[in-house]
Amino acid sequence: MAENQEEVKLLGVDGSPFVCRVKIALKFKGIEYKFVEENLANKSEDLLKYNPVYKKVPVFVHNEKPISESLVILEYIDEVWKQNPILSSDPYQKSLARFWAKFIDDKIVTSSFKAVFAVNDEKEREKNVEESTEALKILENELKGKFFGGEEINFVDIAAVFIAFWIPLVQEIADLKLFNDEKFPKLYNWSQEFLNHSVVKENLPPRDPLFAFFKSRYDALLAAASK
Amino acid sequence: MAENQEEVKLLGVDGSPFVCRVKIALKFKGIEYKFVEENLANKSEDLLKYNPVYKKVPVFVHNEKPISESLVILEYIDEVWKQNPILSSDPYQKSLARFWAKFIDDKIVTSSFKAVFAVNDEKEREKNVEESTEALKILENELKGKFFGGEEINFVDIAAVFIAFWIPLVQEIADLKLFNDEKFPKLYNWSQEFLNHSVVKENLPPRDPLFAFFKSRYDALLAAASK
Predict the structure, then answer these.
(1) Average pLDDT value for residue range B215-221
(2) Does domain B3-80 have CATH number 3.40.30.10?
(3) Domain GST N-terminal spans what residues (chains A, B) (predicted)?
């Protein structure tokens, strides 16, 4: 394998679910890379140069060629490094995986974040609780095996790290029950299997500092709303 | 080629930019298919069965296997029918095409529609005029050749049919100048080349009925707003 002679870099922050997706994929494939921790309050010149459109992380850089958008990065990684595929070689299975990963981004990520952080708008919060619940229900019914990928994790599992790790963390701050074993038993079991997968486990951010980070953000919003 | 013995169906409506993308791709590849016109006010059982999640068009059905989401469909078509590729075989070029097609969907489609149809909220309209202008500027700078695909159309060109055909149509209704040759000369030239491409030209919906459709929608919003 040539990857050790290549330059593989990931610009990111530890607490981002989108960065975490890329870390999991890289580890799953066994690719060595350099992680460059960004300070989003003071973005590096590299970040601005590599992702001038969004100026966001993750940015994946392979031999000086930058790629943004976590799902686009995952597809690239899977095409360049063939070992341990995360997408099926069958075009139909691949299209289903793309559909569900996009579904997670479009229907679950934003609504569950808003359900927690829309502190000054009870109607908006309720609307987003409903939307994320509805979407999680659809995904619950979609889960057929141990993982979305069957016996091993795939593209959809990796995209869904947001559900397994981030939703439980942020819902606790707002004392919400968006996602638990009572409401979504299959998805909850999946999340436990997934979080305990060796590759996933060692690439999750430490829980406590991340909880403190989101809690302080939540408290600041609450303080601003009550003024 | 086996495609003539296969069942290839597209469920859609004529006036949808997302359906139009799939039509262009199928024609570009020379794939025979059956177009099933949907009535969105009274959706068919097939549509509800094939796309239970969104109940939206386009749905592409290949030998009874349904796929939703226009960009996911384009990728599937490109993988199954290899002639006249719309995505490069180079993983990096492919990732750039995916990035820009997603950019069009995330940053241009919604904002330009809202710029036209937010008739009862001037602030919202202005915000969306700004957002779509900003995004079109970024895309203008990205265009290097005759087409996004170089000498021939590719995935990004097909995604951008929305810009070439739909924005000029809806902006006229609201008397806005979101996209024209003064503001975006390169992108405007591209749009003319693209709309005159033989494959594109014959797959665009007839302009007048579509204009009338959007105009009546606009007038209805306006009437509701002035009550």
Answers:
(1) 95
(2) yes
(3) 6-85
